[in-house]
Amino acid sequence: MRKEGNVNIHESRTCPTCWGTGKFIDTPCTECKGTGSIDSPETLTVKIPVGAEEGMMLRIPSHGMAGKDSNEKPGDLLIVVHTAYDPYFRRTNEDLWHTELVSVYDAILGADIKISTLEESINVHLPEGTQHDSVLRIAGKGLPYFGNEKRGDLYIRIHIHIPEKINKEERILFEELRKISKHI
User: Fold this and answer.
1) Partners of 24 in the beta sheet?
2) Distance CA 69, CA 105 (A)
3) What is the pLDDT at residue 9?
4) Contact 64/123 with Cβ under 8 angstroms?
5) Which of residues 20 and 88 earns the better pLDDT score?
6) What is the CATH number of the domain that holds 111?
7) Using the 8-state DSSP alphabet, how is residue 14 labeled?
8) What is the domain extent for residue 126?
9) Which residues fall within 8 angstroms of residue 20, CB to CB, at 6 or more apart?
10) 140-168, pLDDT tens digit by residue?
11) 118 within a domain of the structure (yes/no)
12) Is residue 85 part of a domain?
């Protein structure tokens, strides 16, 4: 049988009067209230290194919390890098991915399509007979590797747009194509 009752818990914490220094200040400073340090906001400009990845931690020496007493220098500030969402590209390590919607006509006949990279727009050849969900690779157009000159690749996933409505002339042509086609 379990018996309920009061339990004495002993906890250890920093003294709110001396803040663990063992010293008492009769007339503490109005700014620091005797702690020996004050919070002062600081704006820093931090250069994120080329190729920094999601979750990478950057250390900024001597910009962290103050030391325990006035003789100790401040600790280090740690910054965690987070990658912003991009509606055009999806990142996988140093490689970038983009989904491009092309017409059924361009997929069947082949075409040159304009693709945006990080620096510029380029023409990419869509081969004749391109299938839905095919992937084209553009070497060296991804993100730079961290601490390296090498770059990842840009992958273009092709999605084929099938028109939901077609006009009368298109219908006639598609029916004619169906008659002469030897495919599925």
Assistant:
1) none
2) 74
3) 59
4) no
5) 88
6) 2.60.260.20
7) -
8) 90-164
9) 14, 68
10) 999 999 888 899 999 999 999 999 999 99
11) yes
12) no
